[in-house]
Amino acid sequence: MSLSSRIYFPPLGLLCFISLTSSWSYLEPGGTIDWSSKNNTCDETFQSPIDIITSEAIDKRFPPFHMEHYSTTADGARIVNNGHTVEVHLNQSPAPTLSGGGLDGIYTAVQFHFHWGSSDNYGSEHFLDGNSFPMEMHIVHYSQKYPNISEALTKKNGLAVLAIFFEVTNCNNTEFQCIIKKLPSLRNPGFPTRVYCNLLKLLPKNFDDFFRYSGSLTTPPCSESVVWTVYPKAVKISSWQINQLRTQLIRIYDGDRTVLVNNFRGLQSRNNRRIYKSIIDSGATLPRQFSQLVFLLVMILSVANLELFSSAGVI
Ligand SMILES: [Zn+2]
């Protein structure tokens, strides 16, 4: 996830170039590994993203999420190319809020953004069973226990992030067009503009089946303050749509202008963290559950046959 809460969004009509200075980049010579040389936290124990191994996750059924104002048209929301990603700031009233789902209290949504690769083979930050996805969306919330996101990110569980994978198909995702149609005006970093998206419709249909673990921001300062919710069921996006992201945005590093792609951090060690899965019937796990059921039935029938043959004196 990326935090750029220091960006100032002027009122509409006063939109102007905003100087975005950043102390980090995905293009540093040492890659994202080099971030720890300037931010000690990036080298700590409970970092993100991670590879989530379904078979090692602990079953735990969390209560359903409760989302408020997610479907409200985001009047007041602004979208910007911040030089690291395309990001939507939800400075609207009333703010979308998230509770339930095993979270401690109510969290306010402040922004969402994306990580993507230069091909369909990679791009997501989290992996699932060793597999990456071409894109991942992060919806960033902070706990209402704290007055603002800056203070929340210094606290354990101060932030809650929903992570949504995307997979590529031939059909456009009509809900994602709110982002795509803004890209031509976001080519250069730092020009925010108004956007209208229905956040609820960017989520997987079943948002109560998920993985849960404690981790960090995936960009400096890498604060270990995040309750992660990772959805196993990917949202679909077309090849044309993801290629708009790969080709229309520019970033500047060391004086060079390049297309904004591969804006994801490498995998971090799980370090014996507990990863929970709260999944009943997700399509992502259905085949495995189905195969287990078939195996059980075969075993029962085999035993029944053995007893039948045995009682008939065949064996
Ligand atoms: Zn992110």
UniProtKB/TrEMBL annotation:
Reaction(s) catalysed by this chain, per the record, are: hydrogencarbonate + H(+) = CO2 + H2O
Single annotated GO MF? zinc ion binding
Q: Mind listing the UniProt keywords for this protein, alphabetically?
A: Glycoprotein, Lyase, Metal-binding, Signal, Zinc
Q: What is the annotated signal peptide range for this record? A: 1-23
Which segments does the entry list as coiled coil? none
**Described purpose of this protein according to its UniProt entry:** Reversible hydration of carbon dioxide.
Q: What is this protein called?
A: Carbonic anhydrase
Q: Tell me the organism.
A: Octopus sinensis (East Asian common octopus)
